[in-house]
Amino acid sequence: MDPKPAPHHESPVLGNPDLPPEGEINTSGDPAALAMTGPQNPALANLFPSQLHAPPTDVSTQAFFWSSFNISPRRVQAGGWAREVTQPDFAISDEIAGVNMYLDAGAIRELHWHQTAEWALMTRGGCRITTLSRTGLPSVEDVYAGDLWFFPPGLPHSLQGLGPEGAEFVLAFDDGAQSESNTLLLTDWFSHTPPDVLAKNFGVAQEVFRDIPLHNLWIFPGEVPGELEKDQLAAGVQWGDDQPVIFRLAQSAPIHENSGGSIRIADSTNFPASTTVAAALVTVEPGSMRELHWHPNADEWQYYLKGSARMTVFNTGPHANTMDFTAGDVGVVKRNYGHYIENTGDEQLIFLETFRSNRYEEVSLANWLAHLPPQLVSAHLNIPAETLATFPRTTQGIVPLRTPS
Q1: Per-residue pLDDT reduced to its tens digit, 239-270
Q2: How many CA atoms lie within 13 A of 53 on its CB side?
Q3: Which residue out of 353, 361, 362, 386 is catalytically annotated?
């Protein structure tokens, strides 16, 4: 019997533009072509319906842009835990490394510093943070859900959970290779410095250091901090002498807001301390979507806080691939790659966009097309100018759900 000829289209079909044809649409009348009889993992397949049954507009493949804290090993000690998504485990994420951490009420992430900048968003509870500025001025602050902080590389800091919930947060380091296990810790330095040097440095007897920990603490239990003002006074905080290291992102005015959701921005224009990380906190209502756009100045590192989403990433080639996301997942979109994020659930979608840059930059597809001569766009898309005139005229940020007319 002659082999069945491949499906053929005399002209491109909307939703199936590729030659040779790709996608399930090409198996119409030949259901056997979809057979998958080998070993299966239904639990994983159910998480990624857009991978198994991709939209007919998807074409070819590209670097996998999904990961998740949900599959990351969790390091646990008395007082809290942490899990991370870094470039060695998520190849595409070479600009940002992420850590999800929890500190119980009173628990302390020990005094430490990094070779990279640390940016963080509080997602639950409250945390007392301490640091020094580059001019040696101290800062002691309390942050709560929706607040963020920024510590430049090399500056020492500590984190401590407040009552009653403790503190959960996501950290973004401005280097994809940075690991939570690659940190300069106070206890490690003390235990690996000769006692006579410690004594000389602090002007005390060597016996003072007899009981110092010989292994680092990392996370350990502690007493719930007292009044913030007392700690600030004891630390010698001087207000107004340096840039704030915290920013109340959730309380800031959105740059885009409509019935479909909102976008709030934190970068060096409104948070001057944040010189290497810019961010957007995005809320998308059910049925709405983050509009088609791209970012020209940095890769986008995403952290999904609530809800479920679908994203298609478009690259040269062409390459277009669709992936599903839910709470705890991480996504990366390389700079200049076109994409959208659609709320696919029945609750709010909330996610974080972070960028290794001092500024948030975005190019809206709708805004670009609206600022071209209409006949030029018509020549490209075969859409009449009068129809183009009904397209959005500015950057929307969020596309609200529209009821059919």
Answers
A1: 776 789 999 999 999 999 999 999 999 999 99
A2: 5
A3: 353
